[in-house]
Amino acid sequence: MDLEINIKFTLHFYESFPLFFKLKTMMEGVVIKSTGILHTILDSNDNIYLCTLKGSEKLKKLPFTNPISVGDKVFFSLEDNSNKGVIEKIKPRINYVIRKSVNLSKRSQIIASNIDLCILLVTIKDPVTTLLFIDRFLVTLDAYKIPTILVFNKIDLHDEKTKIIEETYKSIYNKIGIDTISVSILKGKNINILKDCLRNKTTLISGHSGVGKTSLINLLDGSLDLKVKEISEYHKQGVHTTTFARMLKINTLNGFIVDTPGIRGFGLVDISRKMLSNYFPEMKKASCQCKFNDCLHINEPKCNVIISLKNGLISESRYKNYLNMLDDSENYRYNKYKK
């Protein structure tokens, strides 16, 4: 009799306080979009969830303006069989791509994390991609050991002058082991070569506005039908079509593409003056024979980097861009983020 009473009491207690006993369903997924306080998460079954970040994760003292980035793998909880929930924990990042924040806080912004490959779209004109921009980007990617391919787009628009410029660019980077591909997204030329590089990978696509990022993604998966805008005739620059980073699943490639907002400039973060030359492969190799271990390769005696430059083993443009980055007063290594 006592057992029957206890069972009835327990059932009544559960029915009276359902919220108290409600259990959270813990799940795992990847962040595919992050806008303000709301983050879109994709699970392994292609289900979509909208989540906010747990308060304790927000309060962690990180040198980043955004605690969550596209590509982050997270644990999140749901209630009431809803598609809304809370991100409970961010899994350790394998790598991430960062740039300076646009504000004055001296903090940095994570563009994306857990990247297998980066495609930097380059155009010789409309808009112009400078060698300085390319070198700044490559330094950041090399610092986090993310392979990069330079993809030269709009070759269908080239005249004799721009063909020479492109070949000069490609020669500079091929010599230091960076792969390059020339394509016409408009005409579909050499796109299959690029597709082979993207299969089974999470790939970050970056570059200035107007270089063809959105058009390329549409070509990789026509079902996405992303909005494309024309080049601004007044400024001869791209018009922003993507205002935030997003991860798109490309079923035909069994992979993901991370589409980023067009980047006008690329400020370095997390790299000290002393270490900067290590992210120029040709300079790192030459510096082994410098007289001084702390050589900055400016005007020090018996600097093998300068000797290699004079002998044509180091590109003048690369060395000039190194000096430009060296003068950047905000290149400090924060080391505040623990993986």
Work out the helix count: 9
Number of domains: 3
Name the CATH architecture of the largest domain.
Answer: 3-Layer(aba) Sandwich
Mean pLDDT: 82
The geometry reads as globular
The H/E string reads HEEEHEEEEEHEHEHEHEEHHH
CATH domain topology of the largest domain: Rossmann fold
Classification by helices and strands? alpha/beta
Please write the CATH class name of the largest domain.
Answer: Alpha Beta
Can you give the helix content as a percent range?
A: 25-40%
Name of the CATH homologous superfamily of the largest domain: P-loop containing nucleotide triphosphate hydrolases
What is the rounded distance between the termini?
58 Å
The portion of residues forming beta strands comes to 15-25%
Number-wise, the strands total 13
* Strand line-up in the sheet with most strands: 10-9-8-11-13-12
Q: What is the C-alpha radius of gyration, as a whole number of Å?
A: 25 Å
Largest sheet: 6 strands, mixed
Poorly predicted regions are 13-22, 230-243, 329-339
